[in-house]
Structures are given as structure tokens and as C-alpha cells.
Amino acid sequence: MTEDPRPAGSPTLEDVARAAGVSRATVSRVVNGVRNVDPVIQESVRQAVATTGYTPNRAARSLVTRRTDAIALVVSGAGDDPSPEAEAGGPYRGGPAGAGGGARHADEPDGGAGSSFTAQVFADPFFGRVVTGIVNYLRPRGMYPVLMFAETSRARDEVVSYLRQGSADGALVVSTHADDPLPGLITDAGLPAVLYARPSRPTRISYVDLAHQDGARLAAEHLLARGCRRIATITGPLDVPAGQDRLAGFRDTMARAGQPYVPLAEGRFTQESGEAAMARLLAEHPDLDGVFAANDLMAVGACHVLREHGRRVPEDVAVIGFDDSSAAVACRPPLTTVRQPVEEMTAEMARLLLDRLAGPDRAVTSVIFEPSLVVRGSA
Amino acid sequence: MTEDPRPAGSPTLEDVARAAGVSRATVSRVVNGVRNVDPVIQESVRQAVATTGYTPNRAARSLVTRRTDAIALVVSGAGDDPSPEAEAGGPYRGGPAGAGGGARHADEPDGGAGSSFTAQVFADPFFGRVVTGIVNYLRPRGMYPVLMFAETSRARDEVVSYLRQGSADGALVVSTHADDPLPGLITDAGLPAVLYARPSRPTRISYVDLAHQDGARLAAEHLLARGCRRIATITGPLDVPAGQDRLAGFRDTMARAGQPYVPLAEGRFTQESGEAAMARLLAEHPDLDGVFAANDLMAVGACHVLREHGRRVPEDVAVIGFDDSSAAVACRPPLTTVRQPVEEMTAEMARLLLDRLAGPDRAVTSVIFEPSLVVRGSA
DNA sequence: TTGAAAGCGCTAACAT
DNA sequence: ATGTTAGCGCTTTCAA
Predict the structure, then answer these.
(1) Which residue from A173, A241, A345, B220 puts its CA 20 to 30 A from B54's CA?
(2) Whole-angstrom Cα distance, residue B197 to residue B263?
(3) Contact yes or no for B369 and A103 at CB 8 A
(4) Which of A288, A237, A298 is nearest to A263 (CA)?
(5) What's the CA–C1' distance between A274 and C14, in Å?
(6) DSSP E strands: which ranges in chain B?
(7) B66 touches strand D (CB under 7 A)
(8) Strand pairing category for B318-323 and B366-369
(9) How far apart are CA B259 and CA A137, in angstroms?
(10) From CA A257, how far away is CA A270, in angstroms rounded?
(11) Nearest-CA neighbor of A339 among A320, A362, A356?
(12) pLDDT for the residue numbered B31
């Protein structure tokens, strides 16, 4: 028997140190790439790391560095809890399929009302671009986003609590509704965060946004230049800045062009609401020849309804969307749309957050991006 | 001056203990809901927690419990690194938009080729359902998914490393390609994980899957019952089990019905590939009257091409999809499709993983779900 | 039922 | 340039 009591768990700094015949501190320096380590020792430490199969323990490291290298990506709604102790309230949606060999424990609160929010969020392909931008920025830096949803006051508390526990170093917040209380809760707690889009109430918090009005202007000008004379618009929800600004910008340009009264129908940024809005518009203005929808999903819905009403797009009615989400190229005809550089914007959010983490004294910043027109088939 | 050196950072157990006049151990017990604590003391501790605004530090807790309550959700591809030190290789996609007031530091490796994978992943609305199921299961348990992508060997190493560091307790893996090396790497490292879909190479790892053949049978039977006589299929990639099994099940049923030779075109589960496949099929079999596409995205593409070729759906050609993703209801006509209970399946993945974490001796399990037919307008 | 004390694995002064 | 040492904040035996 050798007197080699192999360490129980995974190897620690101590083990590596012993193997390399140096102190823990030296190993730590090598592992963390700190200068002032003799190249020779450096090499032998690396050897020891390799032979022991050492991996630093993140919890231990976090405990002292006070950093986790995790960032919360929170998609936030403005809802209040529907009922006081709503955990997974709402109608239980038992799918017709059921589980074949599995789905034991029918007591799980899954698939309940809570699902609608996350399902709805991902239904907009816009969100995929949000994630892409963030992941692309974070990943080369060894950081990863933790996905959280904050659509109820309870969920919001959990997000704040999560951050306060130091489970993530900060938050990237994308609100889907107006009057979202989350930004306020986060800043009140003194936690670092960056928003997508200007908060509806002024808050001391950094954000990234789009020059919505400029985008709407682009859309209006394109429709006008195309020769459309009877133009209507399907707006986003008018209680959120993006909805307001896109309408304002559109109206403004139309007014300047001599068309101060733009027929309008309000949507909720969903395809379905776009269909309904288009139907209303068509009923009141059967002769319209141009439509600006405040996002692509609604534009797609509008196209469907127009076609069902015998209108050809773009020959009879030109349609222009907003976002340049994947829905824009997936439909026929492909959508002419106002592109929002989402990936760049969300990467910038991540950058602002990391800046702030590096130097907490950094001032609050906002960065506004310019939209651009992408001409495809629909207008 | 009072002699009250207010603690610097956020309050710790120690602070609460002092405030409540008990020991750290007792506070810990109360906070963690351990029995055997005098109700009176329990109450005073709660008071102290409230007044101090205490929040447990997750890193410290993790260090001793060896749990992080984080789960890695990894979307995995099978690619190798295109070039040895490819970090963000490939053509640099500088958007036409550019950043308005922001986008300083043009040196960021963002928006490069790496983005295509994440963008592509989220382009399939199927993925939103994956996330929904997982989040719905995890959230009530105070756990959150960390989003990771593993499309290159380097990224795979990072995932393994992440798990080995104990940054997450386990992994939920969704592969998008065949011959994905990740499951093997993870099991080799002895890390807990559960897969979506059977791995192409047999691996000792739990997974959740769908009875793809049954689903394809449902589709075939529906088309047949509808009276279609000249039926073709757009398959998924034939090197992945889901693609193979859906084709096998479809062919099998068709053969039984006396149609052993089914015209076929292979797609890649993208709308674009579905369009191309449909065009090929139509060129060779202009008289076809029914199409089974192995997923909804391809079915949508097929509908577009059919319409462009003057075929009405479903009057001239019936089209049936697979998945029941949001794309199925977003198009016109809405897609008749084979529903995969994705949310239930991914919730089950999470359940299997947590089971395994609770008792590492648990055997490897696989759970197969049954698909169902959802009849809408396209067939 | 409660407290004392050890220690999880690591980093960062500080000393050498 | 390297080692020693003192914690980071928590859980968890072990005693009392």
C-alpha cells in the first residue's frame, strides 16, 4: 500500500500546489494569469494543473471576488399578481397529447398561466435577436446570461432577490410593457442594470434605445415616395414609448407632406392584433393604398388580412413593417421594414453593464441607435 | 458619536445573529427552515432579518452546499471549429444601420459568424417552447437556466468547464445536429445532464424524446383519409434521428396503404430549405395533392412555393407540418400539424435532472412522449 | 434546542 | 518572485 490518500472531491488549489511543490498563492497567480511568476515555475504549475485535472471552484472564487460572471437577462412585464397567492394560477392547460411513457407526477404546476408570458415573449422573433446580441458580447468574456422573467410582482421580487444574493453581477432588462416597476426596484436596491428602451418613468438608469421617430419617418417617406396617397398606420400599444414615438414620427412626416390626418388603429405588437387592426382600418377606409405597421408581426398580420380582402401587396396596398425581425423575411412578399439594429443594441447594453461593474462610479448613460430602411417586396 | 461601526457591505448572518442575540447557527437554521428552533426565537430572528435587510450570500452558501441552483440550458450544434483559433471568425457583418450615438469601440468581435448559430436557433419558434417548459418547471423551485451555446469544439469545452467549475448543477442539452460530441464530453466528465432527443450514438445519459414514427403515421393517415392520392414528403436532415424516424414512420404507413414509393426531398428544418424542397418536388411531380413536411417551418415554406405555383392550399394540395410551433398558427391557412408537447417534454427534462441531482445513484432514464394531430386549415 | 468551531476553496494583503 | 496568513459568509458536525 502506498500512503497516498487520494483527495476525495475534485482537486483543489492545495492539491495542485502540493503536486507542483509550490504554495497555493503561486498556483492561484498562474491560474489567474497574474504577472511576476517565474516562467519555469509557471510551467511546472501548468503541468500540475494538467495532471491533477484541476478546475477552479467558482463559488469559492466568487466568495472573495464578489463576482459571479453571470448576468441576469430579464424579460419584464408590468403585470401585478392576478391573485394574492398566485403561484401557477389560471386555467390548467392539459394538452390533448398527454405523456406517453412519461409525465409521472401530475402535480407539477407546469403549463399553467405562467407559461403564456414566456411563450408570448419568444413568439416574437425579435427576442431571438436580443439574445444573440447579448450572448455574442458576453461569451468571449466568459460570461453567460441567466434567463429570468418578471411578469408578476412576485417574479420581480425574485429577480431583485436573486441579484441581491449576488447570484448575478447585474441585470439586462427588456421590458415588454409600460410602467414596468422593475427598473425602479432594481435601482432602489442599488443594483447595476441596463435597460432596453427608455423607461416610461424617468429613472436613474442606463439604457439603450432606438430613434423611433426617425424610423417612422423613413417609413412614411418611403410610402410617400412610392406614390401612396391614402396611407394608414397600425400603431403599437400607445402607452409605451416605442408605440408613441413611432406614431409621432410617422404622423409628423405625414403632416409635413400634407396629410395631417392619418387613419390609425392600435395594436399590441402581436400578429393577431395586427390582423384585427387591419380589418378595422379596411372597413373604414376600403380605398387605402399604404400601411405602416409599428412592428413586423403586425405587418404580417396586416398582409394576411389584406390578401383575404382581395388586395394585392404591394400592388394594391403597400405595407411596411418595423424591426426587421426574422418574420420579415419569412413571409410573402418579404417585408419592407425599418431595421432596428437589435444585436448591436443589446451588445451595447452588455457593454454598458460591464463598464459599470468595472467602475461603479460610472455615470448613467444612454445610447441611441439609428434605424435604417430595408426595402423588400411589400412596399 | 455612538460606537456603532456599521458593517461595510451587505448584512451577513453574523449581523443578524448579533441583532437577534443568538448564534449564527440559529439564524442559519431559521433562514433555511430547519426544524427544532424555538418559535419565539424563530420570530425574533425573522425580525432581525427584516430590520437588517439580510440576504444570504449565494457564493458562500454554494461553497459549502456544493449547489448553485443554476442549470445550464445548452443549445448544441455539431460543428468543429472552422479554423484553429477561430474566435469570431467568418465574414464581419457590418449592418447598414450603424450606431447613432453609441457603438464606440469598434473592436468588439460581435455580430460575427458566431451570431449565425444563435440567430438561427431562435429563428425556429420551436425553441421558445423549449425555454417555456424549462422555465416553468425550474422557476417555482427557485432555479434559473443559464443560456449557453455549444456550436464549436471550443464552445463545448467551455460548457464542460463551466459545469466542472460548479457554476451550474447540471445541463439540459438540446442538440440541433447529429453526431453532437457534447453529450459524450459531459458524461465522460461525470456531469449530470439530460438530453432532448435520443443521442445519435448510444450514450449512458437520460433523455426525453417523441414517438416520431407515431407522429408521422398520424400525418400520413390524415392525408390519406382526406383523399390525397399523390403524396410527397419534405424530410428533415436524414442524419438526425428525428429526421429519419419521421420519414420511416411516414413511409411505413404509406406503404401499408399501398403507396410504397413516396416522392421525397430532404430539407434542413428551415423555412428556406422547405421552399427549395417543395420547388424540387413540384418540378418532378406537378400533380401531387398532398405534402407532409417534417416540421412546421418547412411546411410554411412549402405553402409559399405552392401558392406561387398557382396551387391552392388545401384545395389543390394539402399540407401538413410537424411540431405545432407558433409558425403553425401564424401562417395562412393555419397549419394542420403533428403536435409535439414540447413544454411538457422540456419540463420533464428538468425534472429528470433535478431527480438525478437529488440522488446521483438514479438510473439513466428515457421518457418518450406521444404526439397528437392538430387539424387546422392546411390539410 | 442552541452554540462553538471547523472548514468549504479561493484571493489578496503582507511579509520575505 | 514567492510564501504565509487572514478571511470571504455560510452550513454543519459536535457538544452542551
Answers:
(1) A173
(2) 27
(3) yes
(4) A288
(5) 67
(6) 70-76, 144-150, 170-175, 193-196, 206-210, 231-235, 264-266, 290-293, 318-323, 336-339, 366-369, 372-374
(7) no
(8) unpaired
(9) 52
(10) 29
(11) A320
(12) 95
